[in-house]
């Protein structure tokens, strides 16, 4: 099996029974904030896109690059489609010209022509990507590969059941806006960033240890930030709180925990993997030397990509749009239908929209208890976002139904909150369509009834087996220190005597001290 690195989470898998291209991303994403690094735009995409199968793991724009898919990827390719609760991924791919689809069933092995086997595990909670994330398992001629990309399954046992894995691709770096955009003192922001960075690596080590593959490939990040307004997010300033460590940092940290089987793929690198676990990897340039000169590479990219960023920015302003009026029209019907998400948010969310010249601010409130969108009335709010008015205008103009997959991942905003993180805020703003909202409401309804069904014992405590956050198995991921339980999958903490979640609003856990 030959694995060619094509940048970020993208790779091409070549076997004797066909080729699979995964998650090709080249063009900037999220309001021109994210770019692939190392740069993959100069690869021979005409050749790389001539494949038998296409796998797009989910709709995040650093995995689903509509412009690139339309221009370069063969429409003769059969799409390996994850089993998602909505048809949006298939619909968008059909709009780009793809017509052949294999609708897989989650966790079920499908045998394709020539003995090529694939399995896709779909994650479908409202917090998994844009209503869905997935991993791809491939087997051919005794060689097995798991492309986990940035999916976070509760465990990898289903993949392990299928036989020893030879190549394991997974995310290790940050792909979020926290804590960089929060209005915090510098020291606090650094401390929170370091905590998140450490937690990212801890989760990665857990997955690696679970699967015990012959070779581990760090992929799916980090992006780079080439706009001057976002340049500080690149991990080139020695900031221990930066959440975007690159592959060279992964290799260094992995070595500290005894890892010796890491393989870095630059765009154009290729690894030949055999059923005996042997691997041969070639690179277009020396990997260590490349990352040693990371800042210079980024500066060259920044200069070269500046016209692209400028062109994107020029398209955002739509002064003819009545922002408050349009948000009322689009969001208020969803507020009326929402039960679980509205209750979970529990209060008004304020958006401060800064005018084109920066001199004026219009404040708009999405009032979840009141089920309305209105002008800010000087009341106290727990959640506040500040961004450029033109970004909201553009979201309205393109009828964007997922603000997480656009505004929030762009990092082109600042945020403040009183109290804990609230996942329901972001879950609602990724569900700005009736189909998505109804799915999320149904999921939370079912989830609330299911998580308390079984117990497990952790030291002196008997607790519900499934984490109230995303159903992780606490018999595997739960650690108790004193009276605090930590779910290691996502780092969520619970005070056991009270059951209170210490990480976010809601999500109370059932626990009883029963002795050892």
UniProtKB/TrEMBL annotation:
UniProt-listed InterPro entries: RibonucZ/Hydroxyglut_hydro (IPR036866), Rieske_2Fe-2S (IPR017941), Rieske_2Fe-2S_sf (IPR036922), SCP2_Rv3818 (IPR057330)
Cross-referenced Pfam families: Lactamase_B_3, Rieske, SCP2_Rv3818
UniProt KW Oxidoreductase keyword: no
Source species, domain of life: Bacteria
Residues in Rieske domain copies: 463-516
A Gene Ontology term for the protein's cellular component: cytoplasm
Record keywords: 2Fe-2S, Iron, Iron-sulfur, Metal-binding
Name the record gives this protein: (2Fe-2S)-binding protein
Phylogenetic placement of the source organism: Bacteria, Bacillati, Actinomycetota, Actinomycetes, Micromonosporales
